[in-house]
Amino acid sequence: MMEVVAREAIPPFERFYMHHRDEVLAYLRRLLGQRAEDAWQETFLRALRAYARLEHGRHLRAWVFTIATNVAMDELRARPVARETVSQGSNGSDARAAVELRRDAYRELEHLTGDLPPTERAAVVLRYGYDLPYPDIAAALGSSEDAARAAASSGVRRLRRNLS
Amino acid sequence: MTVTADLDARFRAHALRNGLVDVRYDVVDAPIGPLLVAATDRGLCRISFTPEGADEVLARTFGNRVLRVPLDDVRRELDEYFEGRRTAFDLPLDLRVAPFHEAVLHELALVPYGHTATYGGLAAKVGRPRAARAVGTVMNRNPIPIVLPCHRIVGSNGSLTGYGGGLHVKRALLELEGALLPS
Fold it and tell me: What residues of B are labeled active site?
């Protein structure tokens, strides 16, 4: 019982911030490159604004990645990165055929994620770089779980194509 | 990938400027050991002799948006006090206590530097001459020790009785102020 209470309690913001600030910056660097620092600051300011309204301390990691993804998507829509290719959109049946990567395989492809369209990039990085489960990625992307899975699969296929 | 000190400082300053922080705190190295000091927009709200875990206590009283930022005014006045160059504090206070506690702490603040008063004497000042024990409880729960000088309150026979930071700290503060001869 005590354990449940402890897990759900909302930590003081300082603890939450110190716990997640580095991994959120690394994530945003993956998505935005040099523009990550402004997005990082905006992410934690948004988190701080919303923090007073939080009702429990569950899923705080997924929550802050959701905010970071939203900030990054806004930024990418406003000012796409130069190298970015236009999203081709994915064929439905193709996308549902789950493509998964092993962790070591991801490490070999990681440096190419900057060439992916924003949604695929976020889905791939969240899935393989940060081990977030698909329901959390779906929440971060504001999409269904199927769409999140499809974005990650499509991203992985594109990475492999780009590698060859 | 780690956040640089500069980026971290910019975020903290920005959060503060935008009024997004319920309570801010800092840890000040004092001759009597590390002190956690905390403030709201209204003023200094806490000094704690045990910084460890104090952020959770702050969150329960003032809100979850607790952030560590430099509290320069508080640090400067405490430094001056411990160097013997300051005999009164000019910091605004944010006291959130029950009315009786507030009345007692108000009288406590009037006990001058370098002097002592008794629990019974303080009780008499707030019109409750028989409430020496209750005054002891107020001292024990004083949220802003040192600035609200509960170390200046002693037993009717002159004994130091007790102190939240430990009797050795109470003795050190009274010696600093010249109210006790160095032991």
Answer: 150
**CATH number among 3.50.50.60, 3.20.20.190, 1.10.1740.10, 3.30.420.10, domain A2-78:** 1.10.1740.10
Q: How confident is the model at residue A117 (pLDDT cuts 50, 70, 90)?
A: confident
Query: Rounded CA gap, A124 and A34, in Å?
Result: 19
Tell me the C-alpha distance between A68 and A121, whole Å: 13
Q: Quick one: which H or E segment has residue B38?
A: strand B33-39
For residues A46 and B12, is the Cβ–Cβ distance under 8 A? no
Q: Residues of B with CB below 8 A from A15's CB?
A: 55
- In this predicted model, which residue has the larger pLDDT, B21 or A96? B21
**Nearest residue in chain B measured CA to CA from A43:** B11
Chain A residues whose beta carbon lies within 8 Å of the beta carbon of residue B67: 13-14, 17, 48
Beta B117-118 vs B44-48: how paired, if at all? unpaired
Kindly report, residue by residue over B94-149, the tens digit of the pLDDT: 999 999 999 999 999 999 999 999 999 999 999 999 999 999 999 999 999 999 99
In sign, the C-alpha dihedral spanning B68, A16, A52, A27 is positive
